[in-house]
Write a structure and sequence with these properties.
The complex is a heterotrimer. Chain B has 19 helices and 34 strands. Chain B is an alpha/beta fold. Chain B folds into 5 domains: about 120 residues, Rossmann fold, CATH 3.40.50; about 160 residues, FAD/NAD(P)-binding domain, CATH 3.50.50.60; about 60 residues, no CATH class; about 160 residues, FAD/NAD(P)-binding domain (3-Layer(bba) Sandwich), CATH 3.50.50.60; about 60 residues, Alpha-Beta Plaits, CATH 3.30.70.3270. Chain C is built from 15 helices and 8 strands. The relative contact order of chain C is 0.14. In chain C, the strands form 2 sheets. In chain C, strands 2-1-3-4 form a 4-stranded parallel beta sheet, with helices on both faces. A 4-stranded parallel beta sheet of chain C has the order 6-5-7-8, with helices on both faces. The chains are: A mainly alpha, B alpha/beta, C alpha/beta.
Chain lengths: ~180, ~650, ~300
């Protein structure tokens, strides 16, 4: 493991940016590990949550934003609920995903594609059209086998409509997306 | 008046951001200032000598020192000018450190503000008059509130020194938390074996009066002459007659009374003596659980009592005690862990507090010293200890470290191994805090000799599974989550202020912090004093403390009382109210607002007039702002003096 | 029972994968006097994909719905879906800050007050009607049915946002199910995560997490799981076959929406409650309700 020279590894603004975007005080974290202990997905993470918090304090931007863990977080809010220092950890995970996208550092591309497919569907119809979203996701990832076993069940139960439920004023939702992109 | 002004540098504390020379120069232009200079350390020996020399050389009859807060050095400088022959009230301080140099960086602005503050002080001083103390008698009795180890130590030290002591204890026995402990760290000696003799000393000491089952109801008076009302709660037993034989307990049919002494591990009888070494060893009836007192029939204890001591009709009584000093030693309470829903919030029978575990370890405890699971009475093999439950946790408003949990947890792992040799203890900790003599060695022993497995991380949740408990924690040094299946989980609950501490502080007129712990006079230099003269602190009522520290504070508080009582008379503070008879219209508004009852209504040539009892007046000034005529004035803070200060600051 | 009107936000899954939740929710509300007025032309709240992509986008998608609901004469907005609920409540809370409020309004191009109370249907039902009062309407008590209540991770959390029930040991479903006559078993995984939407991309994660929930429910002797979240229900029900394959288990554990069981107890028919939409066939379990002794026979 290479030795890290403290001032060099530090992207001084990174911690500030994360704190500002998440409205959280990360200096409060004293590394008790409660977030890691309670996180249902710790077993699947490449970096445990408490270590991500430590790396944030140290300003290790690249390593944090290119972690797989931030994409596997299910936003279950356990960490936020139990943090003894009242840090909204789940909100920080959100912010890290936002930043990773901007920096082009998405380590779990399929998760991103799923979410993009979902939002594309919302933008198009105003509501999510589950079959259309799945088709889009498969097109983006080539994962044609995704839940192929469930499709007949869901269709048979009448749980998947083959036509989207479009809202009347789709244009309003489309304008929300358009203005959001202008501002971003 | 010939006024001298001394502007202190306080090294660079003040001079770093205030041009002290310029302040002195400006002061020379103020009315009646005959001399002004800056000085490196006004409080130092040469600094004080400089003040005395200037008084003599320039014939000064009033002095202003511009330096730090008067809480720091007002007394110092009053003595200085006293030594030079001036009346000590012909002195003013301008605080240009806490109020100027420490809070601003702009040197020019700081200097201007310092000049303003000096001018205010000069204008006040020009209107000061010489004030003279009178003397009053001291009642050399002391009251100790709280009979834990700190209060016991304080009471015994005072009593051994020849003082008469009144010890007030809320429970039916003294001993406090220490009496509940099985063993003590780092020596693992028996707690009741070392505390027991001290408790007996309290009972037998000719100088000590013990009021158990009693609480302080009100406190009047002042240093040297406190008047305390103590409510002695009904025990329904005549303690004069009770011999503590315990026969009543054997036959009491009500066995569902709260067992506070055993931390609610099980229940006890309605008539009860909490433990064999109780002092006083007297029975008490719990009126909520007693069948006679709730349903009107039973009386089994009364029939059985060999000395006919049962008194179902007994009521609370209030006794009055006159004392000259009070030591508060009310201790702490344990954090209510049911706030942690993730640890079961009290729903899991085998998740216990560290104090409950202590009672289970104790041979005189509810399990006779056998470690068993409350749920099924089986011996636990895997025991998980969770530290910092209610400590270092902002989310439950307990951000502070309770200080002693690391040590008692290490002790409990050692005792666990002694009780059950094939058991395994696991300790989830965040940091081990063991900065006492032989303390760190002790925690190492728990790990190295007794095999306790320490895991650095907090526990997120406890979930029951097949009669055992899955403890989900993290090993932050490994960087991974950890699960341990436990038979028993012990929560190392932190300390919090004693129930009712705030109310007592208000009766004693002392300050307490946001958590309810009493405020010491100074965080370093006055650890057992308070800001109310004659009231002292000992033990955990001031903040969480282990036994040695509590004992040390008990002795320290006792020595403070001894020093106070070493004089036969105390000088009264002359900064009290006084009435201008010709202006007083006798409306008695001052008498009705005075919080200390220090104003009496008298007659003067047939007219009602207010009169101040100087020894009772605390100089709060409430009467002065109440008086519609401006007839009653607080000496040293008269309307004219305060208005002169305001005018100096706002000349336009 | 008095009638109170609420703006109803069904959520997208209620139009598709959790259609039985939507239908049974409407039926339950109707029978208890909670009147639902659909938010006209509501749009998707953006769910996790939106808040994980950008907080402003997420809030703006929600805010359009808030604005429409604010033009209705209602006591508040209610939704059956915890994910929608968290987005609605989080947005409403964050919009109390003026700077953020103004940004969102400029994107939605509508005035948004963000001042309507927002609640889950579960909270609304229990506030409207004490469990004891609901019990008095029960015509077909769920006697003999042993259930574990599964709230999912965000119905009550984070507590500062959701402000409903206990975040670690919620009891609202327990109380409701008990009132309906079911036996509620103490369930340690009430608020544990099922794996949420990761099923589509990392099925192994869902089979591990949801598998644990099914394992414990079965070990406790539960006949069924009672769910309150479309995502949880889908993972536990529709994916139960995947879970069994991955974990080599043979669970046959029906996963009801609480609204379905409530409807049943209040006398609604199984077809009205869309029991046939559940993937794990609940027929055997439902027979227990009528004839608790059947359990003995089937063993």
């Amino acid at each position: 493991m290479p030795t890290k020279t403290v001032p060099d590894r530090n992207d001084g603004n990174f911690l500030q940016e994360v704190q500002q975007a998440s409205e959280q005080n990360l200096t409060r974290c004293y590394q008790c590990g409660n977030c890691t202990a309670g996180c249902p997905l710790s077993f699947a993470y490449d970096i445990p949550v408490n270590k991500l918090m430590r790396m944030l304090q140290a300003g290790e931007k690249h390593a944090v934003l290119s972690s797989r863990a931030i994409w596997l977080c299910a936003s279950c809010e356990t960490c936020t609920t139990r943090c003894p220092n009242e840090i909204d950890v789940a909100r920080i995970m959100d912010v890290l995903r936002h930043m990773a996208r901007r920096e082009g550092l998405v380590a779990e591309a399929p998760v991103r594609h799923l979410w993009d497919a979902f939002l594309t569907s919302v933008e198009k119809h105003g509501r999510v059209f589950e079959v259309g979203m799945m088709a889009n996701f498969v097109k983006r990832t080539g994962r044609f086998w995704t839940d192929a076993d469930l499709a007949p069940v869901a269709l048979g139960k009448g749980k998947l409509g083959l036509r989207p439920h479009c809202i009347e004023h789709q244009d309003e939702v489309q304008r929300i997306f358009a203005r959001f992109r202008e501002q971003a | 008046m010939n006024i001298g002004v001394f502007v202190c540098h306080c090294g660079s504390n003040i001079a770093g951001t205030v041009d002290t020379e310029q302040v002195a120069q400006a002061a020379r232009s103020f009315p009646e200032v005959a001399f002004a200079t800056d000085t490196m350390y006004a409080c130092s020996e040469p600094g004080q000598a400089g003040i005395i020399d200037a008084i003599r050389e320039y014939g000064l009859d009033g002095v202003v020192v511009a330096s730090c807060t008067p809480r720091m050095h007002e007394a110092t400088f009053r003595k200085t000018i006293g030594r030079a022959g001036l009346n000590t009230y012909l002195f003013e301080m301008a605080n240009i450190r806490e109020h100027v140099s420490w809070i601003g960086k702009d040197k020019e602005a700081n200097t201007n503000k310092a000049i303003d503050l000096v001018q205010i002080a000069v204008e006040k001083l020009r209107r000061n008059t010489a004030l003279f103390s009178s003397e009053f008698e001291i009642n050399k009795r002391v009251m100790v509130i709280g009979g834990g180890v700190a209060g016991i130590q304080a009471a015994l030290d005072c009593a051994d020194g020849g003082l008469e002591v009144v010890l007030v204890e809320r429970e039916s026995t003294i001993g406090g938390k220490m009496a509940k402990l099985d063993k003590t760290f780092p020596t693992v000696d028996c707690s009741s074996c070392i505390l027991g003799p001290r408790m007996v000393d309290i009972a037998q000491h000719p100088n000590i009066t013990l009021h158990a089952m009693a609480e302080v109801e009100s406190v009047d008076g002042f240093v040297g002459n406190f008047d305390v009302k103590v409510r002695k709660k009904a025990t329904y037993v005549d303690w004069e007659a009770c011999t503590g034989c315990g026969q009543c307990m054997e036959k009491c049919p009500s066995r569902k009374a709260e067992d506070r002494f055993n931390e609610h591990v099980g229940t006890t009888t309605a008539i009860n003596i909490p433990f064999p070494q109780a002092i006083p060893k007297k029975a008490v009836i719990d009126p909520g659980a007693c069948i006679m007192l709730t349903k009107g029939k039973c009386g089994a204890c009364a029939k059985l009592c060999p000395t006919q001591a049962i008194r179902f009709e007994q009521e609370d009584t209030v006794v009055q005690e006159q004392v000259g000093a009070i030591i508060a030693a009310t201790g702490y309470d344990l954090f209510d862990f049911t706030l942690y829903g993730e640890y079961g919030g009290g729903r899991y029978p085998d998740v216990v507090t560290s104090m409950q575990y202590e009672r289970m370890l104790s041979a005189s405890g509810p399990t006779g010293g056998h470690l068993v699971r409350p749920s099924d009475g089986k011996e636990p093999k895997d025991i998980v200890f969770i530290q910092c439950v209610g400590s270092r946790d902002h989310s439950v408003n307990r951000p502070y470290c309770s200080g002693f949990c690391c040590m008692y947890t290490a002790k409990q792992t050692i005792l666990t191994k002694d009780h059950i040799p094939d058991s395994q203890s696991y300790v989830f900790y965040m940091d081990i805090r063991s900065p006492g003599k032989l303390y760190d060695e002790f925690t190492r022993r728990a790990m190295e000799e007794y095999g306790a497995k320490y895991i650095r991380g907090r526990v997120s949740t406890i979930q029951p599974r097949n009669g055992r408990y899955v403890v989900k924690g993290a090993d932050t040094l490994m960087g991974s989550p950890v699960e341990i299946e436990a038979d028993l989980v012990v929560l190392a609950v932190g300390a919090e202020a004693s129930r009712g501490a705030g109310a007592l502080a208000e009766k004693l007129r002392i300050s307490y912090d946001g958590y309810g712990f009493f405020m010491e006079g100074h965080p370093k230099l006055k650890p057992v004093e308070t800001n109310t003269a004659g009231v002292y602190l000992a033990g955990s009522c001031q903040g969480p403390k282990d036994i040695p520290s509590s004992v040390a504070q008990g002795s320290a508080a006792a020595s403070k009382v001894q020093a106070l009582f070493s004089r036969d008379k105390l000088a009264s503070d002359p900064q009290v109210s006084s009435v201008a008879l010709q202006r007083c219209v006798g409306c008695a508004k001052c008498a009705s607002t005075c919080p200390f009852g220090a104003i009496e209504m008298t007659e003067f040539r047939g007219m009602p007039k207010a009169s101040v009892v100087e020894t009772v007046c605390q100089g709060c000034g409430v009467c002065a702002v109440t008086c519609p005529q401006g007839a009653i004035q607080l000496q040293h803070f008269t309307d004219n003096q305060i208005l002169a200060e305001v005018n100096a600051l706002c000349p336009y | 029972m008095s009638v109170t009107q609420y703006a109803y936000y069904p959520g997208c899954s209620g139009m598709g994968s959790s259609i039985e939740y939507d239908i049974s929710t409407r039926a339950l509300c109707k029978s208890l006097g909670v009147e639902l007025l659909d938010i006209p032309d509501w749009n998707c709240c953006g769910s996790t994909p939106a808040h994980a992509s950008d907080h402003l986008l997420s809030a703006s998608l929600v805010a359009r719905n808030l604005a429409i609901a604010e033009s209705m004469d209602v006591a508040g907005i209610i939704t059956p879906c915890p994910s929608c609920l968290k987005n609605l409540k989080t947005t409403s809370l964050r919009m109390q800050r003026k700077a953020f409020h103004d940004k969102v309004e400029s994107i939605v191009e509508r005035p948004v007050r963000a001042d309507l109370p927002i609640k889950s249907v579960l909270q609304t039902v229990l506030e409207h009607c004490e469990p004891e009062a609901i019990a008095s309407h029960v015509s077909r008590p769920l006697k003999g049915l042993k259930v574990v209540p599964y709230y999912g991770c965000i119905m009550n959390r984070p507590p500062d946002v959701m402000t409903f029930d206990d975040p670690e040991n919620p009891t609202s479903l327990d109380r409701l199910m008990t009132a309906l006559g079911a036996e509620v078993l103490p369930f340690p995984h009430k608020v544990d995560c099922c794996g949420a939407s990761l099923g589509l991309v990392r099925r192994d994660l869902v089979t591990t997490l949801s598998g644990r929930i099914l394992d414990t429910a079965a070990a406790l002797g539960a006949h069924a799981i009672v769910a309150a979240c479309p995502m949880c229900q889908m993972n536990l029900d529709m994916r139960q076959s995947q879970i069994n394959r991955a974990n080599h288990t043979r669970h046959h554990m029906p996963v009801f929406y609480y609204t379905q069981l409530a409807g049943l107890a209040l006398g609604q028919s199984e077809s009205c409650l869309c029991m046939d939409k559940l993937c794990v066939n609940p027929a055997d379990t439902l027979r227990l309700v009528d004839c608790p002794a059947a359990e003995e026979r089937t063993r």
